[in-house]
Q: What sequence folds into this?
């Protein structure tokens, strides 16, 4: 039996356990334009009560896309650049690592702009982490 897409998934990273979900929603800009697609990855530390969730939010805009019809569910990216499939646990782990590199700490309640993490996370996923240090 296949996993239901709304059920939280388990992720273990650096000794911390999280349950994570991906949600697709629409945010109305308030100026009469069509609603923008938004994808939100939420990571809840486990056991419950050991800290607040980390929310990583991707809202479509100029030069950026968020999956949904007709694009693939969970796809986010720059129209001319890096992209991720947020259904992949490795993509979520790469975003979590990028958030940690920018100062987020496990158990800290936060909402981060996913676009600020995308290039670093996508580079990890493709194995292109930049110049090697000597």
A:
């Amino acid at each position: 039996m296949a996993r239901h897409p709304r059920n939280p998934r388990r992720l273990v990273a650096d000794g911390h356990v999280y349950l994570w979900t991906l949600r697709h929603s629409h945010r109305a800009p308030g100026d009469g334009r069509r609603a923008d697609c938004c994808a939100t990855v939420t990571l809840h530390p486990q056991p419950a009560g050991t800290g607040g969730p980390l929310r990583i939010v991707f809202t479509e805009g100029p030069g950026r896309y968020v999956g949904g019809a007709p694009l693939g569910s969970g796809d986010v990216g720059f129209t001319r650049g890096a992209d991720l499939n947020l259904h992949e646990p490795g993509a979520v782990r790469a975003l979590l690592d990028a958030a940690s590199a920018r100062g987020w700490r496990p158990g800290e309640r936060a909402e981060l702009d996913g676009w600020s993490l995308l290039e670093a996370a996508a580079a990890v996923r493709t194995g292109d982490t930049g110049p090697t240090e000597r």
